[in-house]
Amino acid sequence: MPSDQESREQWIERVYHSSSREELVRNYDEWAASYDADMQAVGYVHPAAISAFTARYVAEPDDAILDAGCGTGTVGNILRIAGFRNLIGLDMSEGMLARARQRNIYARLEQGVLGEGLPFETGSIAAVISTGVFTLGHAPASSFDELTRIIRSGGHLIFSSGVTVWQEAGFATKLAELEDAGQLSEVETSIPYQPMPYSKTESGYLTGIHVYRRS
To answer: Which residue, of 22, 32, 53, 99, has the fewest CB within 10 Å?
Structure first.
């Protein structure tokens, strides 16, 4: 049997090399039971990083925050501890959502796919946050159109993206298009950091947090 370290590295490899959306969802469903422990073991930095940026830009504890790709609710848990009360979770994996539901921290949880229509009213969200989602094989660049639609004027889009895939996956181009259309304006980008510093397979990759303001 593989060691715990080998097992979690295999899960990471499986999700990042899924050949279809169906396979990706199935992998996340099956990984949900050990996901939190596995990611803590590789020093997963995203939850702390995105929570810090969210606290910087969301002023009111009752503002609606959409955790897009919420997984098991790790980020939501941090934000709830920090006092944010109107948290909404979205994920394509029912297995992950089941874990998030057990935390009892989200005002609403929805199963949905980024890149498709979302069940939220136009301008109803104060901030969309997302980590570990805008990467190869996960959410497409077209997801930003719908996410921008649901953010209220003056609200924020806060998300992580790998340094190498930022250009390769078309994320930079799509965000530039939305800026040119007067829908978003860039606020800041974090310094690059290792999202999984203790992972044998992923420690060499760098990520940044990007912040945009809705016009």
So the answer is: 22
